[in-house]
Amino acid sequence: MNRRAFVERFLALPVVPAGFLRAAEAPQGEAQPGLSPDQALTRLMEGNRRYTTSHLEHPDQTARRRKELVSGQHPFACILACSDSRVSPEIVFDEGLGDLFVIRVAGNIVDDAVTGSIEYAVEHLATPLALVLGHEKCGAVQATIGGGEPKTHIQSLADAIMPAVSEARKQPGDLVANAVAANVRLVVRQLRASQPILAKAIASGRVRIEGGVYDLETGSVKILPG
Fold first, then answer.
1. Is residue 84 part of a domain?
2. Exposed/middle/buried for residue 92 (C-beta within 10 Å: 0-12, 13-18, 19+)
3. What is the pLDDT of residues 47-100, one digit of tens each?
4. What is the share, in percent, of the chain residues with pLDDT greater than 70?
5. How far apart are CA 175 and CA 74, in angstroms?
6. Residues with Cβ < 8 Å from 181, sequence gap 6 or more?
7. What's the pLDDT score for residue 151?
8. How far, rounded to the nearest angstrom, does the alpha carbon of residue 119 sit from its chain's CA centroid?
9. Residue 122 belongs to domain spanning
């Protein structure tokens, strides 16, 4: 199937309106259909607090949960996270099967495939929140600061992150930490401006796109302003 045919077929998929979920697709214990973007962010951060205070609930990880999800999914948040093995969203936010729609790529960068994945969560799964999750001491950011690796595919990551590094070089303080935050903000801006689906969904109030940085030592996630 060529790219044009794939796109046409993707766009022909039925759209799940925001706030709507067929009864057959609403497993017991699932996030409430119609969860607002603000409520979704609150739930996400409550899970992170449980994680950082060692009051984990490990929700939605049973055999019953698996069976409930066979008929469909309705994740309450989409997480674009770095591939770093120390930052697993389901653990960091104390969530389980069917709760998070997770996309992971080194440096939590965005390209057409990543944007399309987030569009799918928003448009077809009615997910009300997308969070770009960077983390301390990100290797992809450090590689970009160090000059990248021009003879490998790692250079493609560095190319995507370089505008954030250039921005961070103008700021006082730790370059890596500033670049990690700048990279998250860059990706958030790219997603918020993405047409036609994401920008429209944000304008209508159906979706919220935010950025955060994970602290490797404490396990806490700080939501970045703006």
1. yes
2. buried
3. 999 999 999 999 999 999 999 999 999 999 999 999 999 999 999 999 999 999
4. 85
5. 39
6. 134, 168, 213, 224
7. 81
8. 11
9. 33-223
Separation of alpha carbons 170 and 163, rounded Å: 12
- Alpha carbons 204 and 74: distance in angstroms, whole number: 20
HSE-CB for 181 with a 13 A CA cutoff: 15
First-to-last C-alpha distance (Å) of the chain: 41
Number of domains into which the chain is organized: 1
By the 8 A CB rule, do 223 and 45 touch?
yes
Residue 7 lies in a domain: no
205 φ/ψ sector (left φ>0, alpha ψ -120 to 50, else beta): left
Whole-angstrom distance, CA of residue 170 vs CA of residue 159: 18
In a domain, 24, yes or no: no
Cβ neighbour number for residue 15 with a 10 Å cutoff: 12
